[in-house]
Amino acid sequence: MSKSCRARSLGLTGAFFLVLAAGAQASSISGDYMEARSADVWTGPCFANGETGLTGEEAILAWRVRQGAWNGVSLDGLSVVGVVKASATLGDPFGAPYPAKAVLFVDARASGAQQDALAAFAREMGGELFANVVSTEPAPIAMEVADGHSRRAVLSVGEVAALETRGVAEKDRHCGNEEVYYPPLTSTDHAMPAVSLVDRYSGPSLGVSWTTHDKRNAFVGSFAR
After folding, report:
1. For residue range 89-127, what is the model confidence (pLDDT) as tens digits?
2. Taking Cα atoms as reference points, which of 128, 125, 107, 212 lies closest to residue 163?
3. How far apart are the first and last CA of the chain?
4. CA R_g for the chain
5. What SS3 class is residue 198?
6. At residue 64, what are phi and psi to the nearest 5 degrees?
């Protein structure tokens, strides 16, 4: 190979990796994650079997971006929340939860481009959960996840939804063989089970509403893509 051809090849290779690096940087995103289900996720088989097929069709999933971008749009400090109504118990390997209906709430502080990016990010993270989004709405979202292992976290979506959690404790054991019976519904960097002090949704888009207290149905953690 001639020197000119070799130089050209090296130049193209360098440009290719620069493009890859730029794309990776544009899609790099990380932050906090919260989830709650209408069935216990930290539980024993005796309790889980009593709920399977009867409940567990509803869920709230929330992401707060600490830093990063999606589709080249910076999302630092912004949040997106998805609420799901499935056709069967989510996570049941023998159930058929899809098709599911979902509504997305994007941070009202975000610009139009940022709201579009937040919705696209949630759809990517949620996969089949968000294959049928019946409504995407801007809303005031406040989400705070405590540092450390307390698993204390608070989420509010205007007047429509709320979630507050604490860590599981010995008093939360009812049968003695509790474990993480269902994993989180979406990919996480790290997630720990938690108790929801309150888990509430009252929006009109899914034809269902709920309010529960002190249920072992939540996860608190982080994500990174």
Report:
1. 999 989 999 999 999 999 999 999 999 999 999 999 999
2. 212
3. 40
4. 20
5. strand
6. -120, 120
User: Cβ neighbours of residue 166 under 8 Å, at least 6 residues apart?
Assistant: 150, 151, 152, 194, 195, 197
Q: Residue 25's closest CA among 77, 82, 72?
A: 72
Per residue in 56-101, pLDDT (tens digit) is: 999 999 999 999 999 999 999 999 999 999 999 999 989 999 999 9
d(Cα 108, Cα 198) in Å, to the nearest integer?
23
pLDDT tens digit string along 153-168?
999 999 999 999 999 9
- Per the CB < 8 A criterion, the answer to whether 87 and 131 are in contact is no
The CB density around residue 138, as the number of other CB atoms within 10 Å, is 16
Ordered by start, the domain boundaries in the chain are: 30-224
Query: Strand pairing partners for 222?
Result: 32, 190
Per-residue model confidence (pLDDT) at position 223: 97
In the chain, the amino acid numbered 118 is L
Cα(206)–Cα(213) distance, rounded to whole angstroms?
Answer: 21
User: CA of 184: how far to CAs of 16, 41, 53, 171, 222, in Å?
Assistant: 36, 8, 18, 23, 11
Strand partners for 199: 163, 212
